[in-house]
Design the sequence.
């Protein structure tokens, strides 16, 4: 059964191996360039280091984003081209009548298929993720945004779980739809929805966020921007190194907890000297509230999300093993 699975899967496997080799070579070359630039321009910086970091990020931003997008898209491609046709191909060609009436049972046939191709999917994505994590580690260190939707989904171990989930999900959809092209389309739609829902609706609540009150002070190492509007003054773009700040906009509050107006901080305007403006606001005891996920929760989130995708893949696999015995198949 394993030999038969390999015979049917070898064209896809060899194609994937060729694509993997090409992408891996590109990532390795990119990683060497990133590390060389980091060592010479950032790690060895002695003056004007902020500009050096910004130049470093701008130099490799497009390449890192491109490869990260590839890592996010490849699991969907695996699902569409490996998972969706797994059963529909047999049904559409009628070969299921022969295959599933031999000594090999339907459950054994499907178990071997899911295990063999699933492991191949995990190995493919795991290797690409490992290479990208290595290559982009200096970039990620300078950027300080490992919780970003694109970065989180393309680094370390979460992509492995997502690849297995995408493959088994596509197989389950194909089992229900029984037509290859519709199954591919439905798979693409579901995976696109998952990529939107998980980063923005699920991941922020994996653990309760930390909530803190941040005082405006003369220390501007993490200074936010001030945005004035009709409702009052808001704080935007506040960042904590390595952490995931969940609030993109926060009300600037006075000592009594009321949102301040533009007129209340008009005397703090000093033109181009932002440090003096912040120090002035600090003297007025102005502050804002922020919710964030601390940097030390990164690996906890990675393991939880990996486990979640593996559990979903396991449940979908059990559904497929039960559903494949349906008399209409």
Sequence:
């Amino acid at each position: 059964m394993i030999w038969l699975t390999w015979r049917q899967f070898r064209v896809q496997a060899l194609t994937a191996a060729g694509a993997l080799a090409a992408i891996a070579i590109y990532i390795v070359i990119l990683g060497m360039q990133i590390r060389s630039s980091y060592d010479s321009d950032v790690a060895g910086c002695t003056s004007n280091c902020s500009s050096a970091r910004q130049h470093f990020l701008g130099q490799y931003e497009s390449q890192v984003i491109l490869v990260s997008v590839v890592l996010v898209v490849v699991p969907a491609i695996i699902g569409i081209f490996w998972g969706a046709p797994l059963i529909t191909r047999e049904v559409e060609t009628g070969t299921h009548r022969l295959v599933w009436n031999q000594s090999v049972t339907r459950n054994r046939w499907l178990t071997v298929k899911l295990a063999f191709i699933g492991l191949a999917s995990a190995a493919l994505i795991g290797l690409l993720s490992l290479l990208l994590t290595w290559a982009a580690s200096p970039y990620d260190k300078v950027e300080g945004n490992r919780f970003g939707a694109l970065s989180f989904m393309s680094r370390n171990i979460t992509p492995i779980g997502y690849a297995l989930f995408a493959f088994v999900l596509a197989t389950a959809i194909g089992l229900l739809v029984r037509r290859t092209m519709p199954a591919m389309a439905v798979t693409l739609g579901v995976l696109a929805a998952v990529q939107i829902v998980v980063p923005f609706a699920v991941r922020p609540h994996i653990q309760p966020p930390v909530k803190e009150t941040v005082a405006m002070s003369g220390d501007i190492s993490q200074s936010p921007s001030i945005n004035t509007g009709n409702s009052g003054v808001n704080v935007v773009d506040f960042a904590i190194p390595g952490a995931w700040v969940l609030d993109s906009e926060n009300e600037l509050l006075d000592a009594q907890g009321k949102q301040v107006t533009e007129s209340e901080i008009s005397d703090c305007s000093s033109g181009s000297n932002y440090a003096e403006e912040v120090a002035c606001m600090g003297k007025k005891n102005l502050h804002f509230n922020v919710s964030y996920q601390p940097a030390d929760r990164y690996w906890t989130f990675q393991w939880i999300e990996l486990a979640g995708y593996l559990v979903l893949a396991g449940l979908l696999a059990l559904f497929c093993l039960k559903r494949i015995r349906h008399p209409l198949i």
